[in-house]
Amino acid sequence: MIGAGKIKQYSNILEKPLSKGKQEVSLSAFAFLFSELVQYNQTQVDNISELERRLEDAGYAVGARVLELLCHRDKGNRRETRLLGILSFVHSTVWKVLFGKVADSLEKGTEHEDEYMISEKDLLVNKFISVPKDMGTFNCGAFVAGIVRGVLDGAEFPAVVTAHFVPMEGLQRARTTILIKFAEEVLRREARLG
């Protein structure tokens, strides 16, 4: 055969390498699936905080798997060991893989040493969601907070991660802030390493 290159044939899917491949998912497909996830969980709970907790739990499982995939594929099975390193990894690498861009901002809390915030003006999971008035402050960003918590826990940086709406001047919709409050052990370990 002239001009035909060698194409390796794999007998099963487990033998295929974890190359980057095509990374995009149809936005309409994601919006539909996420909407179904929210609606299903809404029928299973009695209040908003329980619904947000269930979304966070679903996101946690995603975050654990995203960390495993990215560490294997991009980092040669190495993981971050420093606080700023893991925050930068979440803010840039994880965000880019999940949402196609780096998060709008990463900030350190001014009142507490153990708090950091990742802010996004138009978080994808809140983009196509209209919250009924009777649901008040329901924030689908709880799913993303779960993803962040899954990544951090998997990397041995336990933290409480929550999603909040923060009103901004000049914006019709409030921006979403993912608040990360690290466990005391993380700060002690960071002080020991630093």
From TrEMBL:
Gene Ontology biological process terms in this record: endoplasmic reticulum to Golgi vesicle-mediated transport
| Localization per Swiss-Prot or TrEMBL | Endoplasmic reticulum; Golgi apparatus, cis-Golgi network
A GO cellular component annotation here is: TRAPPIII protein complex
Q: Which residues form the signal peptide?
A: none
List the keywords (alphabetical).
Endoplasmic reticulum, ER-Golgi transport, Golgi apparatus, Transport
The protein's matches in Gene3D superfamilies, at most eight in alphabetical order, are given as: Trafficking protein particle complex subunit 3 (3.30.1380.20)
Record's keyword annotation contains Transport? yes
Q: Kindly state the subunit structure of this protein.
A: Part of the multisubunit TRAPP (transport protein particle) complex.
UniProt similarity note: Belongs to the TRAPP small subunits family. BET3 subfamily.
Q: What is this protein called?
A: Trafficking protein particle complex subunit
| Organism whose genome encodes this protein | Hibiscus trionum (Flower of an hour)
